[in-house]
Amino acid sequence: MDVSNHTILSRKKEKAAKALLWTAVLLTLAILLGIILYIMVRGFVSRQEKSYFVSPFLEETLKSEETGEYAMKIIVHRQVKISDLTMEDLRTIYTKSRAENWGHYSMQDKRITALAPSRNTPLGKAAETLIAGPEGGFGSYVAYLEDDEEMIRRIAEDPAGIGIIEADTPVTNRKVKVVPVRRIVVAVHPSVKEIIDNRQLSVITEKELKLVLSGDITDWKDLGGHDRPIRLIRPPEAWGLDELVSPSDIPAADSPEDFFRMITDLPDSLGLCFYDDAAAGGLSILEVSRREVKGNLTLSFLLEPPARSGKWGGISTIILNTLFLILFTLLFAAPAGVLAAIYLVEYAKQGPLVSLLRRGTETLAGVPSIIFGLFGNIFFVNTLGLGIGFISSTLTVTMMILPTIIRTSEEALKAVPLSYREGSLALGASKLQTTFKVVLPAAVPGILTGLILALGRVVGETAVLLYTLGSNYELVRGPSSSARVLSLHLYFLFSEAISFDRAFATGAILVFIILLVNYSTTRLIGRAGRMSG
Fold first, then answer.
1. What is the three-class DSSP state of 390?
2. Which of 237, 323, 369, 507 is positioned for an S-S bond with 464, CB 3.0–4.6 A?
3. Are 271 and 234 in contact (CB under 8 A)?
4. What is each CA distance from 310 to 70, 250, 301, in whole angstroms?
């Protein structure tokens, strides 16, 4: 049978419409999936470029000319999440009480227990000279021990301990680890960091430094500097750094004093020396950046309470606060919203007043959340005197999601066939029995869908909580307690630039909670649908 041109054209249009629809659906899903994957990847893994005054070269054994033959190494408890320390970090830990917390170095809210060898021993004198400097000294909070065995034992017993032992002392205790130190700096002639044509070289990457020391990069312009050759200087043999410089035809310094003179007198020169020597010689230092990749969303991050406004520690109390807000908001909003919908659909006389109520409910469902936040601050916080805290925020969020619950519950009740009501009433059931034993169970899947929508607003809400909940990161202890939930914590981490890595980790947890709640509720909807069917 011949097909008319009109039919052929209609089929082509239908195929084109389907292709366009599928393209839009797939594109939307790809964008959503890409956003979720990006947040999850950034949440689980931290990748960042950080610049340091010291190079990436590690030393497990520390020794200098001042300490003589007494070489030492740094040990910490294995729970301390650091892979290395800079010499500046080590000096700060032992000489400045303001940095007595591991949060400055590992984001862990642990008060540092600094231990050192007795000052009466040669190792103790050498350690104080090397770390604090010839004219410095350890802080009064540093505890002194007599031997390495006691030092290792004390570190093993203290999850926040750090100590100093002789380089030859073996560390066999599994709770203790040796931490290498970075104290080698890149010293350059001041001309290298001069500003010419609005350009200045102040930082090079770890990879670029290795290429310079191997002789593969020989001009400063290849590092983003000026178009001049690099004058590489070999450190004196006394420092033990000459093996880091590969080319054998470069000038070598005979002594530390000779090295300082060459770096100071030769324009465009570069050489390696120790942190203290560079400071003592007044040398210009070139910063070195390195790419640090580490776990971001760890078990300790989930289980530890936060500290310093979330900069240190974990988010355990914030997760619990979020769950409490969800629970109490649903306890207030779900019964009120469903009962209001039942009244409007089953009992209220359909007329202008009910129509006006529905329009008002629809309008309130579209009001920006910040308006509810302002209202909650004026009414609950100030007028009723509840103050900024958990109860004010819960009541405000309840008012915000009530319109959504009422409207979706109404539509779910309206979708129940009239025959269900007529059959129940014909069997002798009362209006109340019909409503709660026949109509309501049949409408449960639709009502749960509305609760999911409302729950999504609760979990992801920020603006309404800024004016009613506060920002205390401790666990909620009562109705008037100021608190912080995940969405609010995420906002503060970004807006105050506290930590972008922790912000992404918090965002990943927030997405996971939303997905988990949606999945659980979908299962409940399916089960409720099968039971009502």
1. helix
2. 369
3. yes
4. 41, 50, 10
Give me 497's structure tokens: 């630039």
Cα–Cα separations (whole angstroms), residue 281 to 19, 66, 288: 72, 15, 20
Does residue 66 register a pLDDT over 70?
Answer: no
Q: Which pLDDT does position 310 carry in this prediction?
A: 72
What pLDDT is attached to residue 414? Answer: 87
Taking the C-alpha atoms of residue 71 and residue 405, their distance in angstroms, rounded to an integer, is 70
Mean pLDDT lowest among 8-12, 156-160, 167-171, 230-234: 8-12
Residue 284 shares a structural domain with residue 328: no
247 neighbors 229 (Cβ within 8 angstroms) = no
> Tokens 């005197």 label which residue?
385
What residues contact 486, with CB distance under 8 A and at least 6 apart?
A: 315, 318, 319, 322, 459, 506, 509, 510, 513
**pTM to 2 decimals?**
0.81
Q: Give dist(CA 271, CA 275) in Å, integer.
A: 12
HSE-up of residue 504 (Cα within 13 Å, Cβ side)? 18
Residue 6 in tokens: 């009109």
Last residue of a domain, one of 119, 146, 181: 181
Q: In residues, how long is the chain?
A: 533
Structural domain boundaries enclosing 218 = 184-292
Q: Is 50 inside a domain boundary?
A: no
Domains contained in the chain, number: 3
Task: Tell me which range, 386-395, 410-419, 441-450, is most confidently predicted by mean pLDDT.
Answer: 386-395
Per DSSP, what are the bridge partners of residue 184? Answer: 274
Q: Specify the 3-state DSSP secondary structure of 37.
A: helix
Using pLDDT thresholds of 50, 70 and 90, give the confidence band for residue 3: low
End of a domain among 165, 181, 197?
Answer: 181
Shared-domain flag, residues 518 and 401: yes
Strands 72-77 and 85-86 come out as unpaired
Phi/psi at 488 (5° precision)? -70, -40
More confident residue, 138 or 532: 138
Residue 391: both structure tokens together: 């109860």
Tokens representing 401?
Answer: 């999601």
Rounding to the nearest 10 degrees, give the CA dihedral for residues 271, 275, 276, 281: 30
Helix axes 440-460, 486-495, angle to 10 degrees: 20
Q: Please, what sign has the CA dihedral across residues 275, 279, 280, 283?
A: positive
With tokens 């419409």, the residue in question is: 17
Calculate mean pLDDT across residues 279-303.
87
- 356-378 per-position pLDDT tens digit: 888 888 888 788 888 998 999 99
What lies within 8 Å, CB to CB, of 210 at 6+ separation is: none
Confirm if 469 and 369 have CB atoms less than 8 A apart.
no
Phi, psi dihedrals of residue 393, rounded to the nearest 5°: -70, -40
User: What is each CA distance from 368 to 198, 375, 378, 382, 463, in whole angstroms?
Assistant: 47, 11, 16, 21, 9
The pLDDT of residue 473: 84
Calpha distance 35→26 (Å, rounded): 14
pLDDT > 80? residue 525: no
Residue 182 backbone phi and psi in degrees, to 5: -105, 110
